[in-house]
Amino acid sequence: MCCSHELTEKDLAPITANPIFLEKIKGMRFFDPHVHMTSRTTDDYQAMADAGVVAIIEPAFWLGQPRTGVDTFRDYFNSLIGWERFRSSQFGIKHYCTIGLNSKEANNERLAEQVMEILPLFIYKEGVVGVGEIGFDDQTPAEDKYYRAQLELAKEAMLPVQIHTPHRDKKKGTQRSMDIAIEHGLDPRMIIVDHNNEETVKEVLDRGFWAAFTIYPFTKMGNERMVEIVKQYGSERIMINSAADWGISDPLAVPKTAALMLERGISIKDIELVCYQNAIDAFAQSGQINVSEFDTVKEIDQNLKYNGSSVLRGGQQPRVDKNATIIR
């Protein structure tokens, strides 16, 4: 737009036309098994619901600034099983989470010891579908120590494990993560190895683990590369996620990748496995996922409150599902 152009009401009006990708995937359902909604807005929840995302998993992670006390972890874990679940429900999306000590903050051993003490208070809560995201960042001795301790915790609780593989020296870190899991007696079918790329996928699949891929702009994986991986390796035990967080990321990465797969000739059946069913099968081993709840959560009433708070701010009007059976 020319700098001399004066903005009109028409210029400032929101764009309401559906993007092309939404038309391609109309009617499809998606499960994003790794997205950090704590860092996202309600607009993102609405956009995800409009794009067909029916359920998500929010792993506990590093918030971008080192935490200084165990109570900040306690409050964060409580928000994942409380407020964030409520906020998601207000947009018709079923919310689950995984709970764990992230690899970066495992290096603060004084704090890590305290976090390990409170983890058993949270991993058995309703809606917690695994221990995660845990693993390696810089592959330090402290990260190794707390990764092993949390594998034991997951084994005792019979929960799936969501592994964060390192950005630096990824192949070595991924191999090491799998080796240690086997050493601790965990079944590869209970472990989701995340943030894979072309360098790691073959070994992860060959060894019987679930292979997750994060579609994240400029860093982890673009969706054109993801299409080629599915063409080469098929859809068995492969899943994709957005890992959308406080960085430059896209909470619509799963539906957008589904649209691209469709455009480039991947079958509907394979798309459904990679973008929906495989994640359900992997995390449902927790005993916490009931797909019938994906429909009941769509009965939205934004008049509801959680501990006295609602998603509505100021004078905003609530959205109430007129098709809901229950009338309040």
TrEMBL record:
| Source taxon at top rank | Bacteria
Which keywords describe this protein according to UniProt? Hydrolase
Q: Repressor: present as a keyword of the record? A: no
InterPro entries referenced in this protein's UniProt entry, alphabetically: Metal_Hydrolase, TatD-like, UCP005295
Q: Which GO terms describe its molecular function?
A: hydrolase activity
Task: Respond yes or no to whether keyword Hydrolase is given for this record.
Answer: yes
How is this protein named in the record? TatD family hydrolase
Q: Which organism is it from?
A: Chitinophaga horti
Taxonomically, what lineage is the organism? Bacteria, Pseudomonadati, Bacteroidota, Chitinophagia, Chitinophagales
